[in-house]
Input
Amino acid sequence: DSGVTQTPKHLITATGQRVTLRCSPRSGDLSVYWYQQSLDQGLQFLIQYYNGEERAKGNILERFSAQQFPDLHSELNLSSLELGDSALYFCASNTPTPPGTGYADTQYFGPGTRLTVL
Amino acid sequence: DAKTTQPNSMESNEEEPVHLPCNHSTISGTDYIHWYRQLPSQGPEYVIHGLTSNVNNRMASLAIAEDRKSSTLILHRATLRDAAVYYCILRDHFAGGTSYGKLTFGQGTILTVHP
Output
């Protein structure tokens, strides 16, 4: 158990709909990362938040948005869903050290949310 | 991000050592080599990381070539629980801004462990 929780575990919805995925980071972790895992694209970084502020963006579609709340939990909002958005969505957390250190800055991943768009 | 190349799949027998190779010929001087693994139906988990010297922890060992263009993750005695996809990832520990923090996953190596 990584200490990161994600809800829901499974989500089935239709094209055009909007869903919200929720992530609770490990206790004390300030940073949350979202990743998407699909069969054709593999594991891809979407976005990172640090203490409520957006820190880095990856290949995140404009239809997708995220936020991190004062209690540090995060939500990933996916709208106008398409069939190709069907994937596993992982959240990870850590408290990163500043650049220039040799620390692993291990990211702790949650169990994921499996999204199926029909 | 610098690119890594790993074999698509490898097989091992239980209780035998496993050597998982990774090539990273374009590695930069500030890139650390990280390994994560993803067990079936789970999120990835950290295994080990290193810069130049070989590293050991309770899960595995990491052997890094002298020129740093390749590395090998060593599982000393594979168990059935080690069956997973293993990812070799380069992370620049000195890059700031939007490059810092994210993990860039390749296709990884699917490790099958036979009883």
